[in-house]
Amino acid sequence: MKLKVLGCGGGIGSNSHTTAMLLDEDILIDAGTGVGTLALDDLLKIDHVFVTHSHLDHIAFIPFLVDTTGSLRDRPLIVHALPATLECLQKHIFNWHVWPDFSRIPDAVRPYMRYQPFAVGETIVLGSRRITPLPACHAVPAVGFQLDSGQASLVFTGDTTANDGLWEAINRITNLRYLIIESAFSDVKHDIARRSGHFYPALLADELNKLQHDAEIYITHLRQGEAELTMQEILARISRFDLRRLMSNQIFEF
């Protein structure tokens, strides 16, 4: 498996894009503004979008993706998510007011887009690739994902805060190689981090003590204007692991 980071920022501007990652050539993990960096030929190869949760920075480019490619494809784009997330997309985005309902265009039998619900812990198998939604704790229903090639696994937590279920699931993964985990706020903003369901360095340090594997760990969702401060706080608090900042265009092969 090959994962390319299209966007991993907590905001936009100055070449920062919100969360989106391209798995091989045909799968998106979230669809934030990073999707807009792809060429049309690349967009046409995408058959699946796996969505962690319904917040705009993770779903903003699903409408543009299906609108741009729908009439040029011979099969629907499949959007995989929790039932609550799919309901939110249907009710608040693809509702004919904000955007057309592409699950019924050109008709309900041959739509440009199809919704596919999943449950936490339910593995979706696409060829030799296994994608498993993991528990997350956020302001809205959310998941992370285990991406398993058979040889190794990468875990992307999505947006989450302290969550014992996540660590229980991760610690059961015997071939974990990479962990991408968020820290959306610096320590001084711990209150808003807690209220919005995000990590901050002090809490992240406590939670990483629950990880029972050695893995390469990358920090994502750093906010514009305080990314350097947040990374400094993380590195000052955590010495057990080799922690690095996730960067756009970074590629993981596993």
From TrEMBL:
Residues 17-221 form the Metallo-beta-lactamase domain. Pfam families: Lactamase_B_2. SUPFAM superfamilies: Metallo-hydrolase/oxidoreductase. GO terms for molecular function: 3',5'-cyclic-AMP phosphodiesterase activity; 3',5'-cyclic-GMP phosphodiesterase activity. CDD domains: class_II_PDE_MBL-fold (cd07735). GO terms for biological process: cAMP catabolic process; negative regulation of glucose mediated signaling pathway. InterPro entries: Metallo-B-lactamas (IPR001279), Pdiesterase2 (IPR000396), RibonucZ/Hydroxyglut_hydro (IPR036866). PANTHER family: 3',5'-CYCLIC-NUCLEOTIDE PHOSPHODIESTERASE 1. This is cAMP phosphodiesterases class-II:Metallo-beta-lactamase superfamily.
